[in-house]
Amino acid sequence: MSAIESVLQEHRVFNPPEALVAKAAISGMDAYLKLTAEAERDYEGFWSRLAREQLAWHTPFTKGLDESNAPFYKWFEDGTLNVSYNCLDRNVEAGLGERTAIVFEADDGTVTRVTYQDLLARVCKLANGLRSLGVKKGDRVVIYMPMSIEGIVAMQACARIGATHSVVFGGFSSKSLHERVVDAGAVVVLTADEQVRGGKVLPLKSIVDEALALEGTEAVRHVVVYRRTGGNVAYQAGRDIDLATLVASQSTTCEPEWVGAEHPLFILYTSGSTGKPKGVQHSTGGYLLWAALTMRWSFDIKPTDVFWCTADIGWVTGHTYIAYGPTAVGATQVVFEGVPTYPNAGRFWDMIQKHKVTIFYTAPTAIRSLIKASDADPKVAPKNYDLSSLRILGTVGEPINPEAWVWYHTEVGGGRCPVIDTFWQTETGGHVITPLPGVTPLVPGSCTLPLPGIAAAIVDEAGGDVANGQGGILVIKRPWPSMIRTIWNDPERFKKSYFPEELGGRLYLAGDGAVRDAERGYFTIMGRIDDVLNVAGHRMGTMEIESALVANPIVAEAAVVGRPDDTTGEAICAFVVLKQTRPSGEDATRIANELRAWVAREIGPIAKPKDIRFGENLPKTRSGKIMRRLLRSLAKGEAITQDVSTLENPAILEQLGEAK
Ligand code: WTA
């Protein structure tokens, strides 16, 4: 049975615990329906009311939504505000200065606490430091840092002075970093000497040096280095400066730069259908509204909560639910440097117990790998830890299979914590389809219902609505405040990718297939409908990996597809034709490993193909098009049922069936 069939046949329903409903921000289905009706009645007024209630505006906005240049929508445009003011000063002014903002746990278990007052001071110092380097409103700053207090401070400091940040995940290679630095036109790169994960020390600064040695990076004037390990790294005189030196003499106050609501807060690169990553551009006002609102709606955050999102700041989840959401609502959060399996696979449970975490937000891949680990070694099973502090669990990034959902609910949540399966994307800025803890009866594997005001729907290839129970294309029919504003440097690609003419040009195309069940209208996500893979919750373009492979001088041709994987959801499978004769035996294993290492250097270790198969050719139609469907069947190890009469050389199917 496929994962989708198993979700659609899922009849277990978990009602929200009554005690939670009573105190929830949105309490009960009626309250949800009331909000949905309000949005229906007066869409612009609904979001404007919330934007006024949730955020502190320097200059109030007079207009909610501007659709005059659709699909380049604008929200709250004539209002001005500052994100860092909203996340820090506002909390301090409200008397929360002594509240712990961040409980940071390092890889080796060392814990550091930072109050809102401290965090504000540190952000101001770095903001002043960046200004002293000449960074101005609208300049781009690339952040290539490990999970750290400093990483969050760096993002907030950029926001404070109106610089647009672009965080690059610390696992990306120098080439990937270079591509992003050039596309963003960064003037400063913030990094660390090294990062520490799972007991290993990994380089960062030397990768920045490699990236900046490549062409097109002349705009980068400075590299600011946070000394995480104190390891020996090269410094380029005049360009490189220690973060500690930069901030040493700076003041702990810094006047925020008041920016328009549409000012780009950040650019975050993500994979699309073509080779080049897309710089997803987000706004200031609409984005921050979402970060704050969804902390309250989806996670029901309260002053007594300890929130922990296990994502990395290099991904959008680490932006909205680490750097901005928790701070915007004055919450206490845990930030973790390391990995779930070090020093053993009980690390998450140990940290929940130690820090009395109440809301825990992680990815299905992590859950699946921890299920396996606790099956293999019962000592690291959640039941050995006191997890009674938990009240809400969340997941994000990929579909969660009902088995993993039920384990999470039972073994981690003790059967009392709702599992909030949040569907969203880099482009949506925050949750769009998700259960609400005090509202939604849960069905394992379904992300249930759209947030109030989110016009999610399922359509066919011509943009027409499809009936519940039938699968189709997931779209959102109306703009919402935290949506992507454009693709940096490429507005045409923005229009084509997200508002395609085939669907009428006004529907936001998520890129996922989905189905709603007939009974409740609940949404279940069926996975990407484009050439994007989702491996362990990381988005990877097949074309990106193919271009990396063919850039290797020994490779003639390559095609990449995904196949289902028990732990990572999907796994990368590459079909490769070499310029030399097709290798076999040990030769093939050796070359496959060389190609994996090559892809790790070209893109990053997360893009390494799990399977590599060599053929003398790829299956193509007469017109020369690669038959990807056939490759997907081969990757899964399925029998070939498609018509293969057009294949030039059917014998290659046998060759390509052999994994290396
Ligand atoms: C997938 C991550 C099923 C989906 C926040 C989407 C999900 C892509 C879920 C975006 C979920 C995310 N259930 N699938 N709850 N959440 N996805 O941009 O395919 O890294 O399009 O954003 O992840 O990945 P991204």
TrEMBL record:
<keyword id="KW-0067">ATP-binding</keyword>
<comment type="function">
    <text>Catalyzes the conversion of acetate into acetyl-CoA (AcCoA), an essential intermediate at the junction of anabolic and catabolic pathways. AcsA undergoes a two-step reaction. In the first half reaction, AcsA combines acetate with ATP to form acetyl-adenylate (AcAMP) intermediate. In the second half reaction, it can then transfer the acetyl group from AcAMP to the sulfhydryl group of CoA, forming the product AcCoA.</text>
</comment>
<feature type="domain" description="AMP-binding enzyme C-terminal">
    <location>
        <begin position="544"/>
        <end position="625"/>
    </location>
</feature>
<feature type="binding site">
    <location>
        <position position="550"/>
    </location>
    <ligand>
        <name>Mg(2+)</name>
    </ligand>
</feature>
<dbReference type="GO" id="GO:0005829">
    <property type="term" value="C:cytosol"/>
</dbReference>
<keyword id="KW-0460">Magnesium</keyword>
<dbReference type="GO" id="GO:0046872">
    <property type="term" value="F:metal ion binding"/>
</dbReference>
<feature type="binding site">
    <location>
        <begin position="197"/>
        <end position="200"/>
    </location>
    <ligand>
        <name>CoA</name>
    </ligand>
</feature>
<dbReference type="GO" id="GO:0005524">
    <property type="term" value="F:ATP binding"/>
</dbReference>
<keyword id="KW-0547">Nucleotide-binding</keyword>
<keyword id="KW-0007">Acetylation</keyword>
<dbReference type="InterPro" id="IPR011904">
    <property type="entry name" value="Ac_CoA_lig"/>
</dbReference>
<dbReference type="InterPro" id="IPR020845">
    <property type="entry name" value="AMP-binding_CS"/>
</dbReference>
<dbReference type="InterPro" id="IPR000873">
    <property type="entry name" value="AMP-dep_synth/lig_dom"/>
</dbReference>
<feature type="binding site">
    <location>
        <position position="555"/>
    </location>
    <ligand>
        <name>Mg(2+)</name>
    </ligand>
</feature>
<comment type="similarity">
    <text>Belongs to the ATP-dependent AMP-binding enzyme family.</text>
</comment>
<dbReference type="Pfam" id="PF13193">
    <property type="entry name" value="AMP-binding_C"/>
</dbReference>
<feature type="modified residue" description="N6-acetyllysine">
    <location>
        <position position="625"/>
    </location>
</feature>
<dbReference type="InterPro" id="IPR042099">
    <property type="entry name" value="ANL_N_sf"/>
</dbReference>
<feature type="binding site">
    <location>
        <position position="539"/>
    </location>
    <ligand>
        <name>ATP</name>
    </ligand>
</feature>
<keyword id="KW-0436">Ligase</keyword>
<dbReference type="InterPro" id="IPR032387">
    <property type="entry name" value="ACAS_N"/>
</dbReference>
<feature type="binding site">
    <location>
        <begin position="397"/>
        <end position="399"/>
    </location>
    <ligand>
        <name>ATP</name>
    </ligand>
</feature>
<keyword id="KW-0479">Metal-binding</keyword>
<feature type="binding site">
    <location>
        <begin position="421"/>
        <end position="426"/>
    </location>
    <ligand>
        <name>ATP</name>
    </ligand>
</feature>
<dbReference type="GO" id="GO:0019427">
    <property type="term" value="P:acetyl-CoA biosynthetic process from acetate"/>
</dbReference>
<feature type="domain" description="AMP-dependent synthetase/ligase">
    <location>
        <begin position="96"/>
        <end position="480"/>
    </location>
</feature>
<feature type="domain" description="Acetyl-coenzyme A synthetase N-terminal">
    <location>
        <begin position="32"/>
        <end position="87"/>
    </location>
</feature>
<dbReference type="GO" id="GO:0003987">
    <property type="term" value="F:acetate-CoA ligase activity"/>
</dbReference>
<feature type="binding site">
    <location>
        <position position="317"/>
    </location>
    <ligand>
        <name>CoA</name>
    </ligand>
</feature>
<feature type="binding site">
    <location>
        <position position="512"/>
    </location>
    <ligand>
        <name>ATP</name>
    </ligand>
</feature>
<dbReference type="Pfam" id="PF00501">
    <property type="entry name" value="AMP-binding"/>
</dbReference>
<dbReference type="Pfam" id="PF16177">
    <property type="entry name" value="ACAS_N"/>
</dbReference>
<dbReference type="InterPro" id="IPR025110">
    <property type="entry name" value="AMP-bd_C"/>
</dbReference>
<dbReference type="GO" id="GO:0016208">
    <property type="term" value="F:AMP binding"/>
</dbReference>
<dbReference type="InterPro" id="IPR045851">
    <property type="entry name" value="AMP-bd_C_sf"/>
</dbReference>
<feature type="binding site">
    <location>
        <position position="528"/>
    </location>
    <ligand>
        <name>ATP</name>
    </ligand>
</feature>
<protein>
    <recommendedName>
        <fullName>Acetyl-coenzyme A synthetase</fullName>
        <ecNumber>6.2.1.1</ecNumber>
    </recommendedName>
</protein>
